[in-house]
Amino acid sequence: GSSNGSGGSSAEGGTQAAAESDWEDVSAKGEMTIGMTLFAPMNYYDENNNFVGFDTELAQAVGEKLGIDINFVEINWDSKEIELNSKNIDCIWNGMCSTAERQETMTLSAPYLYNTQAMVMKADREDEIMSSVDGLTVTAEKGSTGEGKLQGTIADDDTVEVSAMEYFANSNYVASDSMAKALMEVKAGTADVALVDSVAAYGMVGPDTDYSDMVINVDNNFGLQEYVIGFRKGSDLEQHVSDAIDELYADGTVAQLAEKYNLSDLLIENDAQAATEAPEAATGDTAAEAATAAAE
Amino acid sequence: MLGANPIESLTSGFLLNLELFAVTLLLALPLGLIITFCSMSRFKPLKWITKVFIWVIRGTPLMLQLFVVLYAPGLLFGIPMSSRFTAAVIAFVINYAAYFSEIYRGGIESISVGQYEAGKVLGMTRSQIFFKVVLLQVVKRIVPPMSNEIITLTKDTALARVIGIGEIIMSAERFTKMGLIWPLFSTALYFLVFVGVLSLLFGWVEKKMDYFRV
Amino acid sequence: MLGANPIESLTSGFLLNLELFAVTLLLALPLGLIITFCSMSRFKPLKWITKVFIWVIRGTPLMLQLFVVLYAPGLLFGIPMSSRFTAAVIAFVINYAAYFSEIYRGGIESISVGQYEAGKVLGMTRSQIFFKVVLLQVVKRIVPPMSNEIITLTKDTALARVIGIGEIIMSAERFTKMGLIWPLFSTALYFLVFVGVLSLLFGWVEKKMDYFRV
Amino acid sequence: MAILEVNNLKKNFGNLEVLKGIDFSLEKGESLAMIGASGSGKTTLLRCLNFLERPTSGQIRVNEKVVFDGADARTLSEAEIRKNRLHFGLVFQSFNLFPQYTVLKNCTLAKELMAKERPDFKTNKKQILDEIKTEGEAVLASVGLQEKMDYYPHQLSGGQQQRVAIARALMLQPDILCFDEPTSALDPELTGEVLKVIRGLADKKTTMVIVTHEMQFARDVSDKVLFLDKGMVAEYGSPEQVFEHPKEERTRQFLERYFEQ
Amino acid sequence: MAILEVNNLKKNFGNLEVLKGIDFSLEKGESLAMIGASGSGKTTLLRCLNFLERPTSGQIRVNEKVVFDGADARTLSEAEIRKNRLHFGLVFQSFNLFPQYTVLKNCTLAKELMAKERPDFKTNKKQILDEIKTEGEAVLASVGLQEKMDYYPHQLSGGQQQRVAIARALMLQPDILCFDEPTSALDPELTGEVLKVIRGLADKKTTMVIVTHEMQFARDVSDKVLFLDKGMVAEYGSPEQVFEHPKEERTRQFLERYFEQ
Ligand SMILES: Nc1ncnc2c1ncn2[C@@H]1O[C@H](COP(=O)(O)OP(=O)(O)OP(=O)(O)O)[C@@H](O)[C@H]1O
Ligand SMILES: Nc1ncnc2c1ncn2[C@@H]1O[C@H](COP(=O)(O)OP(=O)(O)OP(=O)(O)O)[C@@H](O)[C@H]1O
Ligand SMILES: [Mg+2]
Ligand SMILES: [Mg+2]
């Protein structure tokens, strides 16, 4: 089903992709290509230069269940949709938030982790900035959830306590090339505050880094997002991956991984249980606190 | 901004490219001349500092220079860049002034010493010789390499996106995110048309100066 | 938290730049010559098609060409590029071959017709004239513009990051994400050193050919 | 027996008739001086003889053998032309030495390339190349340049360069050696040495066609003088005839301009 | 009364002594032909007179006024040099016309620039410029180029270009007009017209210093001949003296080379 309303060649590409079976392609090749960017704790290299991370290990476990190899490729995050459509990758699995737009343009898996938006700023200006952001410059990665929230292209849902668009209504917005650049902007002073994924932020800002003079503030609950896996629109691959994930939930692997990466509090239970448990977990306060706890 | 017509959005993105293009030219053309004079100076230290400066600028990617100009003031001195467009302009102007200066130098050095001497024996002053005799001949000589460089500048303006200038390719990528792919590829047309116009313009200038031979 | 040693990581990133640089040169140098012959062909349609091709390649940003090569096969024909390094190589080779071809053409056209005629009246064949008489003179003439272009290629390899080639600047950005800023700026040194080495090399080649004058 | 016969040779560039039917012949050992105003077609005629231009019509015979016939397709083929061209040698106004080769190599290159086509080249390679080298040295000595053998062209004066060009042409032992204003690109002081070499060739009975503006030299060195005017042979005869008793008014006018100073 | 007096003029380039103490003088209206082998220092001497090279020592006097004195700092200043330079005009071997200006503008440019410094320029602008233009036309007519006034240099033949260069130098009415091999860059056919113009100037008693390799011309046109040998005046006298009865052996040898052809 191509309800994405895109025109021209992309529509044809989409239709074509859906017409064939991605699963057949992938199983024939014996390999699934996952597009990602490097960031802790989802996909990164550890001290020993091993490629690890929650998403990394979960994807590898899925690969084992499906009997296929997993091929991770580092992509330009700006190009992820076109990477999918041009079949250079089979899915995006990299702590990607579910948004209305992505629901339109991709087939998404069930959500597996919660995420929140965090404000990152210089520690010595935290009080000043938290008291008012009027007239200040806020940055976010272009195309990110943070940008969507700031610009109102991602509508606020009922998990939102503070509307980012209203909160930053009197601030100047600038887009950054990447999340890393967003933090660099704050460090360099070209922006006063960055609005970024809290999960990623905790992976970047810490005592041993050049950002040790910066703090992550999650006092404002700008809403709760869900991490999902993105597939080509209409792809049958989603079903197979989701089935494998269900099994991994069932045998406890998912919980173990969440434990390992300190993400247990953000973990979304899988479909059957989620039906009853998710709404409870999804109250903003707990999730935001959980995010803080998870990273510390 | 979303929901805007892609053509409108691309066009307004390209206007940013053009603005960067124009401001860079306006400032780099004279700055390049100053750098040329420094690099040809008889005062050795100035000459060498200029040569090293040109070497560093020509030896590193413009992309990095953009990062340095935008971030270094804040990182090193705690004085952040006030605007990223300014940062882009500074990086582009420095980069292109270095390239232009080498072209100018080549042009000036290619003028035969006989032209200067002819001016001298006719009692002209140094500045009369430069402005009345040499300048136009230099201009004629540098038009071809300058047109190449200026056409490269057109395309390089797309690099400004790495510091978040919402130029045409960045504008196009917003549509890519919405699943609309053609805007990205159609940016090529904007560049082709503009480069085409520039080529015609430079061809016309070259023709204008065909009335004499150097 | 930090993984590999930044120096190691930058170095292995730069090896990718160098690989792309070397493969591009290896393929674009001969391809450029073929394009030159096409653009100088007496068969008009071939000549014009080649000219348009060169115009399009020179009129659009390399960044866009990278996107087109990587994505167009998958988008249009459903056959994705097998490797993004291959895609980068294809885009770079096409782009640089077009530029090289124009330099070659300039070099060939600058050889005086007298050299060909001298070969002819001495009973040489066309290929003898090309290889024994003209070639080295052309090489001598194109060394300066080619060195410029090749130095530009060095820096352009950094552009490959836009299609996710983990070259040095992309490697450096991994550290930026982990909160380590200096690697990004220190990439400049890699470029400066390599460009410095290239400049010395080309200087040496120019000197080697100083034994004769064209 | 005429070594060179040119019959009714015509050459047009587009609509411009440059040669309008040239007839002349040359005996073996004779040297012909060709004079005429700028644009009269002297260079074009030499270029036709050397197959650098294809005549529009007419015939060229060398040793009674037709080397060019506007009406015979065979003499027009690339391969035939390459062969027939070797009957002629040409020394250019602007020397056209090969800048990347030494003086000696400039002289031997063409002969070496030809030798490579000989069947016995592989086996006798060293001997053949040595012979060519010795020959090159000899011919350079004959123009007084044995000491400059290992120099590159740009290291020589114009006069020396032109003498190398003459040696290079002599190496292939052409039946007829052609010169197109061999001294006009030289400083006046340097023309003497080149003219001396050409005079030496004349003394050795080399068959030559010399286009020149040096009237005094033309008169001294040539056996025949051909005055070309607007693409036609206006006057042809011995130097005495042409210089002392020109039949045509236009020859007289032309010569006056040179001798008035 | 000597219009030009050169006393013990020396010029070194680093360790190379090019002029080793030149003495000569020239009367108003005389023309001096300077001859000598390549490298003997003729060009250097002319360039010293025109302040394109600064002599190492010695004196130059024009009309009894010292315009250069190696021992007097005043005559070495930039401003003085610019003023004194105007006593001399120089016609270069390679013309050095300004390619971007018409023939007329080439002649008038320098004078126009000087006129701008006159206090009355603003008020009488049009009249002054018209006068200069008329003057330019007249001087061009005097070299036979009134019809080429609006051409650009590259549209002219070499001989015509050199005549423009002469006209350009004449515009500033120098006391002494210098020529450095004015015809050596020209086709032989075109030298005549330039030599004719110079001869015309001699007839009009223009004071001139002419470096030339055209011995015949030097002999005909000059009142004095100076033979420069290795940076020294080897022979100086009337043309008859120098050409017919040279005192020095080296003069004889030098002349022989020219007249042997
Ligand atoms: N390739 C060409 N195409 C068109 N016209 C040509 C070409 N070559 C020569 N001509 C014309 O042919 C005529 C004769 O030229 P040519 O060079 O033979 O004269 P020339 O007698 O050698 O003159 P000069 O003494 O100046 O060398 C001239 O009008 C010239 O413009
Ligand atoms: N700028 C310079 N620096 C060093 N040496 C020079 C310079 N100009 C001339 N010379 C040397 O001075 C000597 C005289 O040169 P000059 O040009 O005056 O000779 P010339 O008599 O004009 O010769 P020609 O007849 O070849 O023009 C030569 O040995 C020359 O190499
Ligand atoms: Mg000719
Ligand atoms: Mg001289």
UniProtKB/TrEMBL annotation, chains B, C:
- Where do transmembrane segments lie in this chain? 20-40, 52-72, 84-101, 180-205
Q: Which GO terms describe its biological process?
A: amino acid transport
Q: Does the keyword Transport apply?
A: yes
Q: Which Gene3D superfamilies match?
A: MetI-like (1.10.3720.10)
Keywords (alphabetical) are:
Amino-acid transport, Cell membrane, Membrane, Transmembrane, Transmembrane helix, Transport
Q: How does it sit in the membrane?
A: Multi-pass membrane protein
Subcellular location, record wording:
Cell membrane
List, for all copies, the residue spans of the domain called ABC transmembrane type-1. Answer: 10-202
List the molecular function annotations (GO) for this entry: transmembrane transporter activity
Identify one Gene Ontology CC term for this UniProt entry: ATP-binding cassette (ABC) transporter complex
InterPro entries per record: AA_ABC_transptr_permease_3TM (IPR010065), ArtM/GltK/GlnP/TcyL/YhdX-like (IPR043429), MetI-like (IPR000515), MetI-like_sf (IPR035906)
The answer to whether UniProt assigns keyword Nucleus to this entry is no
> Which family, according to UniProt?
Belongs to the binding-protein-dependent transport system permease family.
This protein is called what? Amino acid ABC transporter permease
